[in-house]
Amino acid sequence: MFSIVVAMEKNNGIGKNGTLPWPKLKGDMKFYRELTCSHSTSEIEQRYGLGDNSKKSFTSYPEFLDHLHSHRPISLSNNSALPNAVIMGRKTWDSLPEKFRPLPNRLNIILTKQQFTSKVEKVYFTNSLEDALVYAKNAECPNTFVIGGCQIYIEALRQQQCKKIYITKIDSVFDCDVYFPAIKNEYTTNISGYTVSEQLLKYQFTKLEI
Ligand SMILES: NC(=O)c1ccc[n+]([C@@H]2O[C@H](COP(=O)([O-])OP(=O)(O)OC[C@H]3O[C@@H](n4cnc5c(N)ncnc54)[C@H](OP(=O)(O)O)[C@@H]3O)[C@@H](O)[C@H]2O)c1
Predict the structure, then answer these.
(1) How far is the CA of 133 from the centre of ligand 1 (A)?
(2) What pLDDT does residue 78 have?
(3) pLDDT computed for residue 52 by the predictor
């Protein structure tokens, strides 16, 4: 079983020129890091209003941060714990600034058709999504997330094991050259979480679930 995590603009755009089309959104980055590092997705869902259809809105990132800090501290996986797995395409891996990769405290699995080997701990290159999922399972990762890009989302959405899609919906239009693929109707639970305004943009945390 695994989940997809994505941020998209109004027309389902997710990327432009090998990077994100929008400015850095601290609230979304925080959600992304906490979700993919936590062993308890339900705890993170509660924290971001995804446990129920919660309609809270925050007019700035500091206001949102105050709200998050009013919750009890969450426990994120660290080096001593079994990490979650994040599976990504080679282009998404390339798009991560060198100082941020591998994504810390997570097993980074990168899909490529080329022959890459890694000498770095917690980084694994492979040439199929099936193998990536088996690798994460054998490594006893508590949670596995497919984090993009488009080519990998297309494959992930075909898998029966994909049970949840976390979408941060940005309420604006950006010029994009990569789009999230169409989602089948079988995702029946549709939860809208908190809305945050930041960098003159408004975005909402949402979750689709089978
Ligand atoms: N908004 C978001 O949440 C989000 C998230 C992630 C990424 N992005 C954006 O999305 C863009 C990148 O997406 P993308 O679709 O162009 O690239 P991608 O999916 O990240 O990577 C594509 C690469 O993955 C490898 N690959 C694809 N299918 C494979 C398979 N079946 N088996 C083995 N390897 C496979 C190939 O690597 P090789 O060429 O090495 O063979 C391919 O070139 C960037 O702009 C990035 O910033 C946005």
Answers:
(1) 16
(2) 66
(3) 79
Residue numbers in the chain where pLDDT is lower than 50: none
**What per-residue confidence (pLDDT) applies to 80?**
59
User: Domain 2-209 adopts which CATH fold?
Assistant: Dihydrofolate Reductase, subunit A (3.40.430)
Q: Ligand 1 mean position to 132 CA, how many Å?
A: 14
Give the start-to-end residue ranges of the domains of the chain.
2-209
Q: Which atom of ligand 1 is nearest to the CA of 5?
A: 3
Ligand 1 site residues, Cβ closer than 6 angstroms: 6-8, 14-15, 18-20, 88-92, 95, 111-114, 127-128, 147-152, 155, 178
DSSP, res 71? S
Instruction: Report the separation in Å between the CA atom of 44 and the middle of ligand 1, taken as the mean of its atom positions.
Output: 26
Distance of CA 33 to the CA centre of its chain: 8
